UniProtKB/TrEMBL annotation:
This is Fumarylacetoacetate hydrolase family protein. Gene3D superfamilies: FAH, Fumarylacetoacetase-like, C-terminal domain. It is an enzyme of class 3 (hydrolase). Its EC number is 3.7.-.-. It comes from the Bacteria. Residues 1-55 form the Rv2993c-like N-terminal domain. Residues 60-261 form the Fumarylacetoacetase-like C-terminal domain. Keywords: Hydrolase, Metal-binding. The keyword Metal-binding applies.
Length: 264
């Protein structure tokens, strides 16, 4: 299923996205959060008539650094011997079509297209691989926006990756998806109708697979329902500037688009 969070004339709801591009997408409202038993309210809207938000509330977003060997190489780094983790604050999260806002304190910001894992109702604390797989609710698209100059300057990455709007997530959460070998793609450009491909990778090339990541992180911190793990980015990261549009597409999930603007 595809679960979305959205604004409609009556307020904000969760819903199930139905249909395809040929028949037109609709969103059927559900009466609770996606982790509970799905019960439809009977309300339904065309996707064009509502505004999508980030698809879930998260207490935290955990990033994984250098989880694709080709990206580690392009950054001049070795592949880590164990997962390299960091946290992006919940205030960095934005949804589809929300603006990535670049502050004047940085002169070089880059996109990082990533498969994002959403933790389910059971959460995860000190789980093994089997427990990690059970903790997965679904998957969505993520963009680990990074102020690369500040990342190189600071001894840790919190500032470089933690600015408000530096974590676009969406457009929805897909459950039951086999993500062992799917394409992760990023396109950037000034013309939204003619974007340039910057990144293409496949999840099979991750250094550490998803159950390993969840298990590792859960031995450091408790993962709560709705928490997100960004699983790393393939090679090809590049500078984004105000006026650009960034598109992250993941096979089997969909497309996450965000414009880039100047904050100051």
């Amino acid at each position: 299923m595809r679960f979305a969070r959205f604004v409609h004339p009556g307020g904000v709801s969760f819903g199930v996205v139905e249909g395809d591009s040929s028949s037109g997408l609709t969103v059927a409202e559900i009466d609770s959060i996606p982790f509970n038993e799905v019960r439809f309210t009977g309300q339904r809207w065309a996707l064009a008539d509502i505004r999508l938000l980030a698809p879930i509330f998260s207490s935290k977003v955990i990033g994984i650094g250098r989880n694709y060997a080709d990206h580690a190489a392009e950054m001049g780094n070795e592949v880590p011997k164990e997962p390299l983790i960091f946290i992006k604050p919940s205030t960095s999260v934005i949804g589809p079509n929300d603006a990535i806002r670049i502050p004047s304190v940085t002169a070089h910001v880059e996109e990082e297209a990533e498969l994002a894992v959403v933790i389910g109702a059971s959460g995860a604390r000190r789980v093994d691989r089997a427990g990690a797989e059970k903790a997965i609710f679904g998957y969505t698209c993520g963009n680990d926006v990074t102020a690369r100059d500040l990342q190189r300057k600071d001894p840790q990455w919190t500032r470089a990756k933690g600015f408000d709007s530096f974590c676009p997530i969406g457009p929805w959460i897909v459950t039951g998806l086999d993500v062992s070998d799917i394409e992760v793609r990023c396109e950037v450009g000034r013309d939204p109708e003619n974007l340039e491909v910057r990144q293409i990778g496949r999840t099979k090339d991750m250094v550490f697979d998803i159950p390993s990541l969840i298990s590792y992180v859960s031995h450091v911190m408790t993962l709560l329902p709705g928490d997100i793990i960004l699983t790393g980015t393939p090679a090809g990261v590049s500078r984004i500037t105000p006026g650009d549009t960034v598109s992250v597409s993941i096979q089997g999930i969909g497309e996450l688009r965000n414009p880039v603007v100047s904050l100051d």
